[in-house]
Task: inverse folding
C-alpha cells in the first residue's frame, strides 16, 4: 500500500532516535525582527493552546488567543485527573524514551505514526521540567523529589501527578505563562469568542471569522498562521465526560475548508464512569482509572438478580475481568475493560435500576488494608468491625475525594456499598490529519493536542493526553512552525476587507440567518440527544456493518429534520447560548455521519474501534494489519460526501503484534 | 416530559445585557428528579421555556464536574447553594424539598458585571493573573525538575492553595465583594515554592494593585469566602498575602 | 514604604488593624485603673490612679495619640464601608449570611457606631467633667474625686443599662476585631492562631465584663 499523494507526512529522514534532533537543528528559522511582524491566531486555550500561545509569544510572534469560555483557565484540560507521563526514569525502574515510545505505540494498537510518538517520548521529560519551573505543585516525596505513580498499560512508574487534579495544575501553569504574555502585551486575549470559520486565501489559512459571544458581532481576524487547539469531539455522543462546550466546530470548519479528518471513528470509552441516572442527564462523570487498583469489578452470576449487592454471597458473584484476564485482572486497558462491561450488561447481568452498570467493589481491599493496619498498630485479634474501620481510613486517604464525588452525585455511600460504574465516552483519538510539523492539509493551518489525530493511534493510554497537549504546544510547534513562517516573512498583513474575509463572514451570517429563519418546533438539545443515541447505539463501544449503515441513513434524516424543525430562540446580536449550541450541533451531526462512514470502512477491530464482525474466538479485537495499517484521512467533498485518502503506517522500529492481556 | 416528582418555584434574575436593568422572574420547575444536578434542573426549565416559545435563562457552565469554575449561581442567599464544598454543577436537587421556592441570582460585584441573566464577566480575575500570577520562566529555560527540591509539606500547602478554580464564589459570598481569597491563593502558592520566591515581592504588590483597580472591596475577615469556597481554600492564604504585602511594601524602593 | 500603601486595600486594613490593636491596649490600661474601685475603699485607690492619669504629661500626650487613633480607626472604617458599598452596587435579594459567617463579624460597622454613641455619652459623663468643667471636691487624700462622679452617675438606672448594653456591643466588636487584627497583619499560623483566637475570646468576654461590673456594683451598692 502506498500513501495518497495528497498526504505528505514530512517525516524526516534518519534513524528514529535522530529524526527529531536533526530536524530541529535544520528546520528553517525566523529571525527575531521578522517574528514581530508575523501574526499567529491560536484557537482554544487548553494545554495545547495556552502552551503554544505563551511559547510563541515568548519567541516574539504576535499572538491572538480565542476561547469560548469566560477565561482561558476554564478549558477542559482542567478536568484531567490522573497524571502526565514522562520518561524521566526517576524511579530507576528501567524507563526510557524508547520504552515510553513502545508502550504508546502498543497501547494505541499499532495505529499511530512512529516518528511522532518517538518525538513525544523525547520531549516528555522537558514538559515536567518546564511545569515545575512554572510552579506547578506536583506531588513530592519527603526528600523533596518528585513522586510518581503507575497507570494502566505500562510496567514502570512514570506518571507525575498533583493529587487527582493534575490537568488543573498543568493548565493553570500554562495559563499563567499565557497571562504573563497577555500582561506584557505580546498576546491579545479574546475570551468569550468562538471561531466560526477559517479564512483561506490562495489555499493558505489567513485568518478566521470569530463571533463575540457577548455582543453577537462577527469579527474578522487576520493571521499568518492559524493554530487549532480545540480539543476532541466526544460530545457527538451527547453524553460524555467532556465539558458542555467541548465541540468539533473549529475542526469541522477547517475540515470543510480542506483539512482532512484523520481516523474519526477512534473513540475512547472510559470504563469507570458514574452510570446514567435518567433522561435528564447532561453529562457523565469520570471516576479515575486509579480506582481499579483497589476496586474489584463484578456482576451477579444470576440474570436479573435484584438483591442488594451486599446480600449476594461471594460464590454468586462473577468477577468477570479476573475470570477472563487472569494476568491483568481489573487492570486491563480501558478499551478491554469497557467492552467486557458492555458484554455483561447486554447479556442481562447488569445491576442498578437501569441494569446498565456493573459493581466496583472496595470491600475486599478495605478488609485487606484493615488487616495490614491492625498489624502495624499491634492490634491482636482485632474484631471485623475494627479491621473494616481501619481499612476505610486507608481507602479514604487514597480515594477520599473520588468517593465524596461519587456520593455527592449518586447519593450512595461507596464506603458502605459497591460503586456502580459503566463506560462512557471520554476521549477521541481521531482528529484533523497533520503532518510531522502538525500542519493540516491546508497550508498555515495547524492542529495541536486532542484536535489532531497524531499520537495515540486507536487507543490512548492513561496520562498521555496531557503529555501530548503540552508537547505540541511547548516543544513542537515553536520549532515546526518556522518551516512555514520562514517563507511568509514577506507576506504583509492582509487587510480584513479582502474579499475572502468578506465572503467567509457572509457565509457565517447566512448560516445564522438560516438557523433563525427555521422557527421550528424542537430545541437544539432535542436533536443533540437523538444524535447521541444513534451514535452510542450504533457507533459506540461495539459497531457492526448493519448498525453503521442504518446509522448513516438515520443521521442524514436527522440532519434534514434539524434544518427544517429546529427552534433557535433569542437574537443574533446578543449573548445567546441557544444559537451557539445550534451551530455546534449542526456540525456534530455532519461529523457523526463521517464517523460512521469511517467505522464502516475499517473492516477490522483495533483499540477503541471494535467491529463485532472482527473478533477472535475469545471476543478480543482482531486487527487486520495487511489491509488497515494506515491512517484514514477523509477529504470533504460537499454535503455528505467524503473521499478517503490513506497514509500508510510503517513500523520500522516496533514489531506488529497482537495485544494480549490475558 | 417528566423526570421526577419534585415541583419547585424559581425566582430568577433576568437581565438582557450589561446595560439594561434586570428584574426577577418567577418560573415553575415541574417534574424534577432529586438525582438531577441544579444545572440539569435549569436545563429542564429551559427546555420547557423553549418549547413554549419563550427565551431560556442564560447561565455560565462548562465542565459540570466541579473543576472548571465556570458555573456561578447565587442560590438562596449563598454562592453555589446550600451545600458546602461543591460548585453549582455538583449541587443536586436532593438538597431541596418538594415545594421549595428557590431564589437564584448572579454573582454581585462591581468587578463582575452581569452579561446576561446569571452570567457575569469575570475577566477581572484574568487581569489580576496577568499582573503577576506567574513565574517568569520562558519555555526552554527550565533545568531538570529534580534539581529543585521542595519539602513535601511546602509542596502540599502550595497545592492546596493552587486548588482554586477561580469561580469567584469568594467574591460573591463576601459582604464587601472582596477578592482577597482568590488573589491570596495564587500569591501563596507561588510564595511557598522556591521557583516563585524570586519574584514574590513584585508579584504581591502588582497583583494587589490590580485587584484594587478592578474595584473589589476590602477584606473584613468575616471568613465567608473560606466557608463558601467549593475547594475550601484557607483564610491562612489571606494572612500570608497580607504578610507578604506588608513586608514587600516596607522593603520596596519605590 | 511605597507611595500607594495607604490607599491600597491591604494598607487600609493595616491601619484598621493597628489602630484597633492600639485601642485594645488602651482598654487594658483603662480597665486596670478603673478596676481599682473594687478595692472598695471609698475610691481612694482609684482616685490615686485617676490623678496619675490626669496629671502625668506622658499620659496627656498619650491621650492625644489615643484620640488620634480612635479618629483614624473611625474615619478609616467609614472610608472602607463606602469603598465596600461601591464594590457591590446592586445587592442581593436574599442573603443567608448565617450560613458562612458570624453576625457580629458582618456587623462591625453597626457595633462600632453603637460604641461611638456610647463613647460620646461616656466622655460627657466623665472625661469632659474631669478635663474641662471640673470635679466636685477632693477625697481624703486631696485628689480630685472622680470616684464621686462615678457614684453619682451610676445612681441612674438608665445609665447602668446603657453601659451594660454597650459593653455587650464592645464584647462582640472585640470578639471579631481581636483575632481579625492579627489576620490583617498577616499573623496567622497553624499553631499560634488557635491560641490567639482563644485569647481573643477570653479578652472579649473578660474586659467588657469587668467594665459592666462597675456600674452594676455601684448601682446596687456592692461597693460604696
Result:
Amino acid at each position: 500500500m502506498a500513501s495518497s499523494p495528497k498526504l505528505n507526512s514530512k517525516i524526516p529522514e534518519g534513524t528514529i532516535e535522530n529524526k527529531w534532533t536533526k530536524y530541529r537543528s535544520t528546520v528553517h528559522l525566523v529571525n527575531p525582527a521578522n517574528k514581530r511582524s508575523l501574526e499567529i491566531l491560536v484557537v482554544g486555550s487548553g494545554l495545547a493552546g495556552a502552551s503554544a500561545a505563551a511559547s510563541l509569544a515568548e519567541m516574539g510572534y504576535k499572538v491572538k488567543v480565542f476561547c469560548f469560555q469566560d477565561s482561558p483557565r476554564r478549558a477542559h484540560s482542567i478536568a484531567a485527573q490522573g497524571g502526565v507521563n514522562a520518561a524521566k526514569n526517576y524511579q530507576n525502574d528501567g524507563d526510557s524514551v524508547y520504552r515510553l515510545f513502545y508502550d504508546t505505540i502498543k497501547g494505541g494498537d499499532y495505529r499511530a505514526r512512529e516518528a511522532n510518538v518517538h518525538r513525544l517520548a523525547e520531549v516528555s521529560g522537558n514538559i515536567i521540567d518546564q511545569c515545575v519551573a512554572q510552579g506547578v505543585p506536583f506531588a513530592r516525596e519527603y526528600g523533596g523529589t518528585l513522586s510518581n505513580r503507575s497507570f494502566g498499560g505500562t510496567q514502570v512508574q512514570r506518571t507525575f501527578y498533583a493529587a487527582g487534579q493534575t490537568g488543573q495544575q498543568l493548565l493553570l501553569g500554562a495559563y499563567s505563562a499565557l497571562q504573563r504574555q497577555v500582561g506584557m502585551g505580546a498576546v491579545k486575549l479574546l475570551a468569550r469568542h468562538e471561531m466560526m470559520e477559517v479564512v483561506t486565501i490562495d489555499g493558505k489559512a489567513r485568518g478566521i471569522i470569530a463571533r463575540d459571544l457577548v455582543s453577537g458581532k462577527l469579527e474578522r481576524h487576520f493571521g499568518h498562521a492559524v493554530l487549532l487547539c480545540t480539543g476532541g469531539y466526544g460530545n457527538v455522543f451527547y453524553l460524555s465526560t467532556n465539558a458542555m462546550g467541548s465541540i468539533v466546530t473549529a475542526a469541522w470548519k477547517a475540515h470543510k475548508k480542506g483539512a482532512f479528518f484523520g481516523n474519526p471513528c477512534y473513540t475512547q470509552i472510559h470504563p469507570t464512569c458514574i452510570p446514567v441516572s435518567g433522561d435528564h442527564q447532561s453529562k457523565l462523570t469520570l471516576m479515575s482509572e486509579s480506582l481499579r487498583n483497589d476496586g474489584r469489578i463484578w456482576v451477579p452470576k444470576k440474570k436479573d438478580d435484584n438483591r442488594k449487592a451486599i446480600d449476594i454471597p461471594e460464590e454468586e458473584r462473577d468477577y468477570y475481568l479476573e475470570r477472563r484476564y487472569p494476568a491483568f485482572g481489573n487492570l486491563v486497558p480501558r478499551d478491554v475493560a469497557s467492552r467486557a462491561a458492555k458484554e455483561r450488561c447486554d447479556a442481562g447481568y447488569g445491576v442498578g435500576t437501569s441494569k446498565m452498570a456493573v459493581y466496583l467493589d472496595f470491600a475486599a481491599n478495605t478488609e485487606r488494608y484493615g488487616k495490614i493496619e491492625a498489624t502495624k498498630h499491634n492490634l491482636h485479634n482485632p474484631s471485623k468491625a475494627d479491621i473494616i474501620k481501619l481499612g476505610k481510613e486507608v481507602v479514604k486517604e487514597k480515594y477520599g475525594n473520588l468517593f465524596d464525588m461519587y456520593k455527592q452525585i449518586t447519593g450512595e455511600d461507596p464506603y458502605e456499598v459497591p460503586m456502580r460504574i459503566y463506560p462512557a465516552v471520554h476521549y477521541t483519538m481521531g482528529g484533523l490529519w497533520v503532518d510531522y510539523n502538525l500542519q493540516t492539509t491546508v497550508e498555515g493551518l495547524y492542529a495541536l493536542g486532542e484536535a489532531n489525530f497524531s499520537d495515540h493511534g486507536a487507543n490512548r493510554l492513561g496520562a498521555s493526553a496531557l503529555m501530548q497537549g503540552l508537547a505540541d504546544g511547548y516543544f513542537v510547534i515553536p520549532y515546526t512552525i518556522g518551516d512555514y513562517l520562514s517563507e511568509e516573512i514577506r507576506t504583509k498583513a492582509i487587510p480584513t476587507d479582502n474579499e475572502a474575509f468578506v465572503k467567509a463572514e457572509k457565509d457565517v451570517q447566512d448560516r445564522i440567518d438560516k438557523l433563525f429563519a427555521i422557527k421550528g418546533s424542537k430545541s437544539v438539545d432535542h436533536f443533540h440527544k437523538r444524535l447521541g443515541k444513534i451514535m452510542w447505539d450504533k457507533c459506540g463501544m461495539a459497531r457492526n456493518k448493519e448498525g453503521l449503515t442504518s446509522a448513516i441513513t438515520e443521521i442524514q434524516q436527522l440532519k434534514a429534520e434539524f434544518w427544517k424543525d429546529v427552534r433557535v430562540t433569542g437574537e443574533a446580536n446578543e449573548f445567546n447560548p441557544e444559537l451557539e449550541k445550534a451551530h455546534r450541533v449542526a456540525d456534530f451531526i455532519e461529523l457523526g455521519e463521517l464517523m460512521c462512514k469511517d467505522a464502516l470502512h475499517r473492516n477490522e477491530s483495533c483499540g477503541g474501534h471494535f467491529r463485532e464482525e472482527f473478533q477472535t474466538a475469545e471476543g478480543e479485537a482482531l486487527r487486520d494489519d495487511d489491509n488497515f495499517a494506515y491512517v484514514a484521512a477523509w477529504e470533504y467533498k460537499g454535503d455528505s460526501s467524503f473521499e478517503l485518502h490513506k497514509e500508510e503506517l510503517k513500523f520500522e522500529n516496533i514489531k506488529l503484534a497482537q495485544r494480549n492481556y490475558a | 416530559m417528566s423526570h421526577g416528582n419534585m415541583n419547585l418555584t424559581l425566582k430568577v434574575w433576568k437581565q438582557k445585557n450589561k446595560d439594561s436593568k434586570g428584574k426577577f422572574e418567577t418560573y415553575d420547575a415541574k417534574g424534577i428528579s432529586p438525582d438531577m444536578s441544579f444545572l440539569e434542573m435549569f436545563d429542564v426549565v429551559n427546555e420547557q421555556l423553549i418549547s413554549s416559545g419563550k427565551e431560556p435563562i442564560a447561565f455560565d457552565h462548562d465542565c459540570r464536574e466541579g473543576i472548571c469554575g465556570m458555573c456561578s449561581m447565587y442560590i438562596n442567599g449563598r454562592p453555589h447553594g446550600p451545600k458546602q464544598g461543591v460548585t453549582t454543577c455538583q449541587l443536586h436537587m436532593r438538597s431541596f424539598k418538594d415545594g421549595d421556592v428557590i431564589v437564584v441570582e448572579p454573582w454581585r460585584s462591581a468587578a463582575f458585571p452581569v452579561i446576561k441573566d446569571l452570567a457575569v464577566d469575570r475577566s477581572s480575575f484574568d487581569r489580576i493573573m496577568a499582573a503577576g500570577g506567574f513565574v517568569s520562566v520562558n519555555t526552554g529555560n527550565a533545568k531538570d525538575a529534580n534539581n529543585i527540591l521542595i519539602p513535601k509539606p511546602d509542596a502540599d500547602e502550595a497545592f492546596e492553595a493552587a486548588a482554586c478554580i477561580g469561580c469567584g464564589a469568594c467574591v460573591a459570598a463576601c459582604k464587601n465583594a472582596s477578592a482577597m481569597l482568590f488573589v491570596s491563593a495564587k500569591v501563596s502558592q507561588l510564595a511557598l515554592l522556591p521557583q516563585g520566591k524570586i519574584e514574590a515581592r513584585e508579584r504581591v504588590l502588582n497583583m494587589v494593585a490590580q485587584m484594587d483597580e478592578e474595584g473589589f472591596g476590602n477584606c473584613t475577615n468575616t471568613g465567608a469566602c473560606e466557608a463558601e469556597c467549593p475547594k475550601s481554600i484557607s483564610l491562612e492564604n489571606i494572612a500570608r498575602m497580607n504578610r507578604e504585602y506588608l513586608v514587600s511594601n516596607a522593603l520596596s524602593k519605590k | 514604604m511605597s507611595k500607594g500603601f495607604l490607599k491600597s486595600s491591604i494598607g487600609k486594613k493595616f491601619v484598621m488593624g493597628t489602630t484597633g490593636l492600639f485601642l485594645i491596649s488602651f482598654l487594658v490600661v483603662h480597665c486596670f485603673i478603673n478596676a481599682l474601685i473594687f478595692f472598695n475603699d471609698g475610691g481612694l485607690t482609684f482616685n490615686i490612679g485617676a490623678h496619675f492619669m490626669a496629671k502625668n504629661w506622658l499620659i496627656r500626650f498619650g491621650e492625644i495619640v489615643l484620640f488620634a487613633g480612635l479618629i483614624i480607626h473611625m474615619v478609616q472604617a467609614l472610608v472602607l464601608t463606602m469603598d465596600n458599598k461601591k464594590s457591590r452596587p446592586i445587592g442581593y435579594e436574599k442573603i443567608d449570611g448565617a450560613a458562612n459567617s458570624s453576625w457580629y463579624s458582618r456587623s462591625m460597622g453597626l457595633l462600632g457606631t453603637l460604641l461611638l454613641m456610647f463613647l460620646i455619652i461616656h466622655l460627657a459623663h466623665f472625661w469632659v467633667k474631669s478635663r474641662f468643667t471640673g470635679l466636685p471636691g477632693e477625697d481624703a487624700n486631696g485628689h480630685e474625686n472622680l470616684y464621686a462622679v462615678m457614684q453619682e452617675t451610676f445612681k441612674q438606672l438608665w445609665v447602668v443599662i446603657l453601659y451594660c448594653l454597650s459593653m455587650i456591643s464592645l464584647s462582640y466588636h472585640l470578639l471579631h476585631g481581636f483575632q481579625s487584627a492579627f489576620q490583617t497583619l498577616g499573623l496567622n499560623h497553624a499553631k499560634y492562631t488557635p491560641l490567639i483566637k482563644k485569647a481573643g475570646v477570653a479578652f472579649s468576654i473578660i474586659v467588657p465584663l469587668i467594665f459592666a461590673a462597675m456600674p452594676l456594683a455601684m448601682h446596687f451598692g456592692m461597693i460604696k
User: Anything to note?
Assistant: Chain C has one domain: 3-87+106-219.
